[in-house]
Amino acid sequence: MTRTALIVTTKNWVPTARLAAALERAGFVVEMLCPAGHPVGRTQLVRRATTYHGLTPLRSLARAIHATRPDVVVPGDDLATRHLHDLYGRREMYSKDARALGSLIEYSLGSAESFPIVQSRTAFMDVARQLGVRIPKAAIVETDGDVSGLADRVGLPAVLKADGTSGGDGIRIVRTVVEAKQAFRELQAPPLVARALKRAVLDHDSTLIKASLLRYRQPISAQSLIAGCEATSTVVCSKGTVLAGLHFEVLRKSSAAGHATVVRLIENDEISTAVEKMVRRMGVSGLCGFDFMLEARTGHAYLIEVNPRATQVGHITLGPGRDLPAALYSAISEDPIRVTAPITENDTIALFPHEWARDPQSQFLRTAYHDVPWETPELVHACIRRSRKQSVWYSRADAKTETVVTLQGERPKNGGARILAR
Question: Mutual orientation of helices 57-68 and 78-89 as an angle, nearest 10°?
Fold first, then answer.
């Protein structure tokens, strides 16, 4: 019996296209709710792509669920998760079978009691503290007075974070009270109308329009800055039990507060234990991510963030216990898990197109496993066009040789921007 997964995304993000391919390989029939212009539209990875409308998000979501009748819904970004939470709370308004709709959402994400926890950074950190999970000092920041007292409350330097944001958009690292006050004003300010309209027209993303018109201000929290390196954990769960997981140390990022571009596979007992405690307490199901800081001085892992959705590494399959799509399909179908061979034995992975876009001459494109979706050339084309805004000539030589992608108008002296297939 075929099983259907509905991926829901409000962003034109490449990782959701990669996830679609991974779920299809695991055995799912994949459907997607996404904005117009999503890179998956250039491929045959999904059976059907339904257009997401940011001004009527719950209606878009309810219609997609009704049309696809999925066995599981997989959110691909934080706003998609929030839409599912909101739809659960208002399911009687959008479905003739509210009970079935509510059951599907809980089956896909986990206990509805955890929805307010993952929506609030403060609530999430409170739960972690209660469970004895190591976390940084944290506080709510509501007024200029709170900002002025930041040094005493959490210490400086600190990290200010706005709820309801992702991809580094709502994060500021501050080292002085003056910087903190400026960052607080920026994070608290509603989106400018011009910015919201520009994103709607150019990126087909209308999610900022409602927040801009309603002048909505996100809650702000502060955390002490842990000196060290970042780590990320992505797991697939069923009713509070971790079924498979990937733990990575972050080696390179697109920016100080941006997404990872190069990661290294690690084993860390403190991370594993913390994730299992949080997943069990919140009754999580489906794909979920957790971010940590590995303190340089002690090596301790500090939990700093939850990503209640599929993350950008969720498509990576690295064998038993590290194949999230296969574990999810097994949980949904109740068939024995069918783990595929690891995509690489290299523990360092350069994420495509992120590391290549960050630095086309990066050493990691040669020394790490470069995660290019060669099996889907249409997606490679779409990624390059989105990253470089240029037309592309694409060619692939023998699998054992170097593959070269040349960007029109950007031909460097060494003969082209190289993407190495390994």
Answer: 80
Of 224, 240, 255, which residue constitutes the final position of a domain?
Answer: 224
What's the CATH number where 166 sits? 3.30.1490.20
Taking CA atoms, 312 is separated from 200, 243, 264, 316, 371, in Å, by: 23, 18, 14, 9, 12
The number of folded domains in the chain is 4
Residues 256 and 286 grouped into a single domain: yes
* Within-domain flag for 190: yes
- Torsion over CA: 168, 281, 283, 26 (sign): positive
Q: Distance of CA 421 to CAs 255, 351, 382, 398, 407, Å?
A: 25, 12, 17, 10, 17
Q: How far apart are CA 130 and CA 56, in angstroms?
A: 38
Per residue of the chain (422 residues), give pLDDT as tens: 789 999 999 998 999 999 999 999 999 999 999 998 899 988 889 999 999 998 889 999 999 999 999 999 999 999 999 999 999 999 999 999 999 999 999 999 999 999 999 998 889 999 999 999 999 999 888 888 988 998 899 999 999 988 766 656 778 899 999 999 999 988 887 666 666 666 665 555 566 666 666 565 678 889 999 999 999 999 999 999 999 999 999 999 998 778 999 999 999 999 999 999 999 999 999 999 999 999 999 999 999 999 999 999 999 999 999 999 999 999 999 999 988 899 999 999 999 999 999 999 999 999 999 999 999 999 998 888 776 643 333 334 333 334 444 433 333 333 334 444 33
Which alpha helices (H) appear in 44-190, and where do they start and end? 57-68, 78-89, 91-94, 98-109, 115-119, 121-130, 144-148, 150-153, 177-188
Domain that holds residue 244: 228-333
Pair of tokens at residue 386: 């989105």
- Asked whether residue 176 is domain-assigned, the answer is yes
Does residue 366 lie in a domain region? yes
- The verdict on 232 and 192 lying in the same domain is no
Same structural domain, 214 and 233: no
